[in-house]
Amino acid sequence: MDKIEQQIGRFKALNINEIFKEVVMQTKDSLLGHIKDQNLFGIASDGGALGTYTWKEWADYKWEECADYHAPYGEYNLKDTGDFHDGMFITFGMKGDIIVDSTDFKTPVLEIYVTKNRGQDGGNLMFTLTEESLQEYRSQFFPIFMSKIRKRLGY
Length: 155
Fold this sequence. Notes:
With about 160 residues, this protein is mainly alpha-helical. The protein has one domain. The protein has helices spanning about 5-15, 15-25, 30-40, 55-65, 85, 105-120, 120-125, 130-155, and strands at about 90, 100. Strands 1-2 form a two-stranded antiparallel sheet. Strand 1 and strand 2 (about 100) form a beta hairpin.
């Protein structure tokens, strides 16, 4: 078999979706770190606020007593006990799309609060990267992704 036929065979055998998933799982700490940081600063995936507390007492408590409260006064930061952030995980949908969720039992309630406050799907606002965070993550993801492709193609 000549060199061109070998290369064509390598390209046909290349499973981009498999490589994509490998790299996402290899870089999951970074991906989840960006999402957690957004949450701590009260930033939704569209760059707006996740929501505003309706109870002044709770807003005061978060502002005055919580050392890791970095959101503007009165805005959600989605952290109290840490269970929500600690429970975050990544899986993949049927089409290979990245799904971020949390094992914390409060997750559905948080999604409802964000949805009610914003009038949009709370899960998307809570678990999706902002454009800025996405660019930062891509700068880490793509070199690894391309390296794996080159390696599998024999370069």
